[in-house]
Amino acid sequence: MSDLEIKRDVEEELHLNPDLDASDIAVVKDGVVTLSGFTRSYSQKMEAERTAKRVAGVRGIANDIEVRLPALNQRPDPEIARDAVTTIQAELPYSSEHVNVVVRDGWVTLDGQVEWHYSKERAERAVRRMRGVKGVVNLIKVSPSVAPVEVKKKIEDSFRRNAEIDANRIAVEAEGGFVTLRGTVRSWAERQEAERVA
Length: 198
What we know:
This protein is α/β, with parallel strands linked by helices. It has helices at about 5-15, 40-55, 75-90, 115-130, 150-160, 190-195, and strands at about 25-30, 30-35, 40, 60-65, 65, 100-105, 105-115, 135-140, 140, 170-175, 180-185.
């Protein structure tokens, strides 16, 4: 697809999404889309990114959308921090004590250490939806307690069971605390599904 076609399709997809006010698309070059403009919440900014990723031909995204909270949704940092801690405790009851929260000017920074990657992602998703949050920086480290060989086998088995992934086209490498997925996929959605499963 040409960059003009990708731009047109991304704009149409954004306009059709009922959860978004229309965002601007500044540039599409070599399949990389730059999202710009303003949203009224951080979750809307991330929804615009998810929407653009679904479009065929998109190879990368620069999300330069600025979050401008309405006065009603602006909150002091201590309130956001308290709510973030409570939200993470509810979302991750077994590993929340290993996650630290720092809030500055509405930006939430998460750090600490968890055993599973999904815990890192769930912590971020939980605070992303909170009122008053302008952005999230996720610095949580993942330190698994299982052997890399076991991790590799479990991921490969999960790929075989998943109808949305062509397991024969993806190779799994596990070494230390890192997993590398190599191969080709049919779409960005399949790539994200492979990452989620892993």
